[in-house]
Amino acid sequence: MKYQKIVVANWKANPPTLIEARKLFAAVKKAAGSFRGALVVCPPAPFLADLALSYRGSRIRFGAQDVFYEKGGSFTGEYSADMLRSIKAQYVILGHSERRRLGETNEDINKKIAAALAAGLTPILAVGEKGRDAEGNYFQTIEEQLKKGLSGISDSSLPKIIIAYEPVWAIGKRAEDAMKPNDVQEMAIFIRKTLAQKYPRNAVDKVAILYGGSAEPENVAGILTDGGVSGFLVGHVSLEPARFKEMLSVISDL
Ligand code: PGA
To answer: Which residues are CB-contacts of 58 (< 8 A; sequence separation ≥ 6)?
Structure first.
C-alpha cells in the first residue's frame, strides 16, 4: 500500500505572540512551496483562526492541538469540533503525551475522536510509552491506548484516523536520541496488528501511521525508508524555519 507522505507541524504553546506566529507561518509557507506531500500546521488555538482564514494557498492544511467532545454549551474554556471546522481546521491532534500528562484519559480521548469524526475533522491519535523495559510491557501500553482510544469507532471511520506513534522518552531531544528505524518499524507493525484484532484488514491497511519524537532533518530519511511509517509529527524543528525546510526537502526527495 502506497501512502501519501504527511508532515504535521505541532507548534505546541509557541510562539508567544500573534505577530510572531504570522512570521513563523510566512516562513513555513515558503518552505512548503516545493513539498510533495500533505503538510498540516497546528498552531496554538488563539492563532489558528487568524492563520487559517487568511491563508489563500492550497498546500497547507490546518489542525488544532485539542478539541472538546461536546458540541457546545456551558463548558467554560472549551471549544467544539464544529467551531474548529468553521475556521477551516481539518485536523486535530488528540492524546498527545503532553495532554495525557495533564490528566487526559483514554476515555476522554475516545470521546474527542468520536466528536472530531462527527464534525468531519481528521483525528491524529497520538500514542506512546513513557519508557521501555526489558520485558516489553510497553507494548501493552500502546495496545491499551489504541483499544480504549478507538472504542466504538466503526470500520468505515477507521481509515479517516491517523495514528502518531510518539515514544514519550524520545520527544524534545536530538536526532541521535530518536528511535531507530528498525524499532519504529517494529512498533508500526504492532500497531497494525493491534488494529487488525478489531478491524478488517482493508480498513487497517488504509490507516496512515506517523512517527514523532525528535524527528529532525538528519533522521527522517532512515525512518521514512525503513520505519514503516508515512510521515512525522514534528515538534521543535517546526519552529525553526531553515531546518524545517531542510526536513521537508529530504522527505520530498524520498
Ligand atoms: P519533538 O516533538 O519533535 O520536539 O520531539 C514531537 C511532539 O511532541 O509532537
So the answer is: none
Report the separation in Å between the CA atom of 214 and the middle of ligand 1, taken as the mean of its atom positions.
6
| Gap from CA of 169 to ligand 1 centroid (Å) | 10
Q: Which of 20, 98, 143, 166 is catalytic?
A: 166
With contact defined as beta carbons under 8 Å apart, do 62 and 107 qualify?
Answer: no
- Catalytic, 96? Answer yes
> pTM value?
0.97
- The whole-number pLDDT of residue 206 equals 97
Q: Is the pLDDT of residue 186 over 80?
A: yes
Query: Measured at the alpha carbon of residue 17, what is the angle toward residues 39 and 75, in degrees to the nearest 5?
Result: 80
- List, in order, residues 6 or more apart from 177 with CB less than 8 Å away: 170, 214
Which of 101, 223, 233 should be mutated for ligand 1, with most atoms under 8 A from CB? 233
Residue spans of the domains in the chain: they are 6-252
| Assigned C-alpha cell, 114 | 468520536
Confirm whether 166 is a catalytic residue. Answer: yes
Closest CA to 121 of 70, 81, 87: 81
The superfamily in CATH containing domain 6-252 is Aldolase class I (3.20.20.70)
- Within 8 A by CB and 6+ apart from 161, the residues are 113, 117, 122, 123, 124, 125, 150, 153, 207
Ligand 1 binding pocket, CB closer than 6 Å: 10, 166, 171-172, 212-215, 233-236
Q: What is the pLDDT of residue 177?
A: 86
Closest CA to ligand 1's atom 6: 235
